[in-house]
Amino acid sequence: MAPLASDRIPTLDILRGLAVMGIFSVNVVGMAMIEAAYFYPPAFGFDGIADRVMWAANFILVDGKIRALFSMLFGAGIALVCERAAASGREPWRVHYPRMVMLLGFGLAHYYLLLWGDILANYALMGMIGFVFWRLPAERLLVLALVGFALSNAPAVLYSQQLATMHALETAGGTPEERAAIATWRTSLIPAPAVIAADVAAHRSVAAHAERMWRENPLRPFESVPGYGIETLALMLLGMAGYRSGFLTGAWPRRRTVQVAAWCSAASLLYFGASAWAILQADFDPFTFVPLDQYWAGPLRPVAGAGYAAAIILLFPRSGAVADRVAAVGRMAFSNYLGASLVGALLFNGSGFGLYGQLSRAQCWLFVPPVWALMLWWSPWWLARFRYGPLEWAWRSLARWRWEPLRRVKEKDHG
């Protein structure tokens, strides 16, 4: 097992490891089938009971919640890096901003070459803003995070009202023009066969994917800032508060951590469990699915992220056979996140096995456990020989504009 570096915080590494594993279980849908299926499951590959079971499991336990946790951990990482830079006599901004610029480059490459659902570019852009707040105490960071969540979720009220009006017009008999517009909206959720065929063709090679991204939506990574950037920033600030208060490092008294795990996880499970039941009962009718999945779930994502963090801290010791492997995955979260996309490209892209658009939702999820196993195997194997993950090393070297030592030596690792 790879030894942990002396300056690592094992709890953060364990949290980060489980988060990056969880993210793949959601991203695999975006890798394996058309984008519309990611946002509205009946749009593609959703015919059997197993597809509904896998959707419900991800909806209740993973989707949105693990991204919230990952975003919180990114914010905690910003505070940690800046603190250590200041402690070593360096200007924190001189350390932080080169890191964000290089991360943006990686994110754009990831978007254009591999996956439309990249989050790295959004993290880099919002991280540039988040730096402004890293010195604040935990209480102020928490207040700002709550303000951010209120702002990011405010449009949901308007959208829900609009959707309720549309539903009323459909059921109570609107004008022919209004009913036609509603029917068009319903139809738009499920792409036409020609659109699906074009999407599949765009995945015949990496070059074809890149050409499509550049032609259809070249600015999407930057449009994520007004899109969901406020929520991302709020989650980062919440993570900074969690780090500064000692919550995310496991320094809280066990009783307080148990309370957070119990209350936050219970609230999340109650909402998402009840919503999944309602959606399944309505057979994914858009007027039930869209508000429960896209509008009202937002406030519960940070709650779930905090609850998951607390539960993981309670369940995983700071060291041990399993904990060390998961921590190794977390130490290489950047490599594992992008590495999972490379595996997805190999499996689904036409340049590899060409399985894109050939599998149902449940079938594509069968690749998740083997990829998790791969992460848990190769991460400690690599770290036993090298100081950083391969992409962590590249990111570090580029941000510092110098060749960082990579191979592990027998002396104590200070990296």
Automatic annotation (TrEMBL):
Keyword Phosphoprotein: no
TM region positions: 18-40, 119-136, 141-159, 228-248, 260-280, 300-316, 337-359, 365-384
Keyword entries, A-Z: Membrane, Transmembrane, Transmembrane helix
InterPro entries: Bact_Transport_Assoc, DUF418
Residue ranges constituting the DUF418 domain according to the UniProt record: 243-401
Family matches, as Pfam families: DUF418
PANTHER family: INNER MEMBRANE PROTEIN
Listed name of the protein: DUF418 domain-containing protein
